[in-house]
Each structure stands twice: as structure tokens, then as C-alpha cells.
Design brief:
One of its GO terms (molecular function) is DNA binding. This protein is an alpha+beta fold and 277 residues long. The chain is built from 13 helices and 5 strands.
Amino acid sequence: MTTLTEEATRELAAFLRTRRERADPRDFGLPSRRQSRRTPGLRREEVAELAGVSIDYVVRLEQARGLRPSADVVEALARALRLAPDERAYLFDLARQRPREDGGPATTAAPQLARLVDDLSPLPAMLMNHRFDILAWNGAMAKLLIDFATLKPPQRNAMWLCLLHPRVREFYLDRERVLREGVAHLRAAWAAHAEDTVLTDLIAEFMAHDAEFARLWAERDVKVNGRGSKAMLHPDVGPLAVHFEVLTPLEDRDQRLMLCRAADEETQAALDRLYAG
């Protein structure tokens, strides 16, 4: 039987604790008690009752005492804590209960996908792997964000650029939200690819060099964000508002195709000027 690594065991414990403490007892219809609660959220015995497991089992899980819960127990805990879909998937990944794809992560774009990225012009498009490494991009995306061809390969990473590139750091008007969503997405990828030492080292680099990343990583938010909007301040054409969509190719499920389009007429006019330049 596959055992959990020490790091995964600790993270499983911490994640269960934080989700238990964030839960509002009133949402579960639990009876009011005369004595005020000393700790926030649900008690361990309440989680145990809701999940149909023993209190000792919950205690041992939260104390990282080497348990590897079965898929049925993971499902019961997810239901008991009312986890969101991305949080549920994260819990399954931490418990090593999710089926995994064979082979390692892609480091280059498949030729068919690279051609597709080019064909999507004039829509800005780029292809990434689960680490946020940028594997392919078209000219429109290079003009919108940065000329990726001028960067060293290790720097062609969307999170690295957002955190450590001087120009891109100031690019997003709502930087806190963009970074928070990116960190939550990266945490889900980290749990799903525990064997990826390159990703682990990348996260360690971010932790060491960016206090903002370290703060958000410690919050343990998990969310796979496939659609949304971003407000940008482009150095050449000024304010931009774009919608983005992230798609997963069926033949390459570990890769992400991101498309951007103007959210309003003013942005479209600015993009037209940018692409014509």
C-alpha cells in the first residue's frame, strides 16, 4: 500500500484543522451549548460524528500521526466539512487517493497545440503546464504581457513573472486578487503532483523571495480558476480590462490553454493599437 510522505501527512493534518476551524457550527444545525466555544469552528467530536468515524481517528489525522485515510473516509470528511469541489479534490490528492496520469509533466508544447496557439491570433493565447511554465504563446500574448522570447527558460513561468519580474509585478491593478487566485491554483497543482520536485523547488524559491506569496501559501486556499477577468495597466496603451478562459486539451490533460479577449470597447480599441504597433 502506498504510504504518505511526511510532508503530505503534515499538510493533510493542517488542511483538516483549518477547514474544521473555518466551519460555522450554525450552518450544520448543531444544538446551541450553554458553554461558549473555546475554539472557532467545529469541534473534533462534531466532525467525527458528521463523518461517521471515531473521535480518536480525527485526532490522529489532525496530529499527523501517519494515517492514510481510505477514499471512503476522505469522501466522508469532505462531506462533513462541506468542502468546495476544489478543496475536495485537494483533500483526495493529499491522501493519495486520486488516480494519476502516467508520465511526467510536459516541458514542451506538442506541435499541434503550438500551431493552435498561433492560429488563435489575434486573440492572445498561451499554453502552460501545471507549474505555470509557459510552453507556447502567440504574438498577441507577447504584446499583451511580455516578450517571452527575451526571457530565460526558467523565467517563462506565469507565477514567477507575477512575483519577481519588475515590470509584470506592477502590471495587474488588482494584484492581491490575481496573486491569491494564482497561489490557490498552484497549491492544488502541488497536491496533485507530489512527485514533481521541480515544482516543489519552485514553490520553495517563491517562499524564500516573496513574503506576499509565503503569506498566501500559509492560508491554504485551494481553487482551480478557469475563467475570470483581469484589470491591467499596460505600459504602452494604458488601462485594459480582459476576460480570460482556461481550457484543458483532452490529449494533454496536464496542460492549460489560456485565451484572453477584451472586456469592453475601450480595451478592444487599445488592443488594436497595441497589435498595430
